[in-house]
Design a protein that fits this description.
Length: 124
């Protein structure tokens, strides 16, 4: 069974109105449940928006069920969000760039990856 983000949020959040239902489903179907990297990305965004510890939320989710896809990228991105103040998508772009030059006007990447600054190109 594919677990969507609302199910994981109901398990992770202490005060979610679907928490009891999610826990019941989890107890009864734990071995059948799985999700994808896209659920983790959405979870990363929600955790960021709600001011939660993104590393902890993603780690908790990955410990609850099998995640198919590129889990390591999302886990690494959550670390950049927590440790360096990146937004979730900045962090995902940084991790996905794998050290290649990032073409962007966003100065957030300075010191983390080579960057071709669009503002500098515009001024040439």
């Amino acid at each position: 069974m594919y677990a969507e983000v609302d199910f994981l949020l109901a398990l992770i959040k202490d005060d979610d109105w679907l928490g009891d239902a999610a826990e019941k489903v989890y107890r009864e179907h734990r071995d059948e449940l799985w999700t994808s990297q896209f659920t983790l990305i959405e979870l990363l965004l929600v955790a960021y928006r709600e001011g939660r510890n993104t590393e902890r939320v993603i780690a908790n989710a990955t410990s609850l069920l099998e995640v198919q896809g590129d889990v390591e990228t999302v886990v690494a991105a959550a670390t950049y969000v927590e440790d360096h103040g990146f937004t979730p998508f900045e962090a995902l772009h940084l991790v996905e760039s794998a050290g290649d030059t990032i073409v962007s006007s966003d100065g957030m990447y300075e010191g983390f990856a080579p960057r071709l600054d669009l503002i500098d190109v515009q001024e040439e």
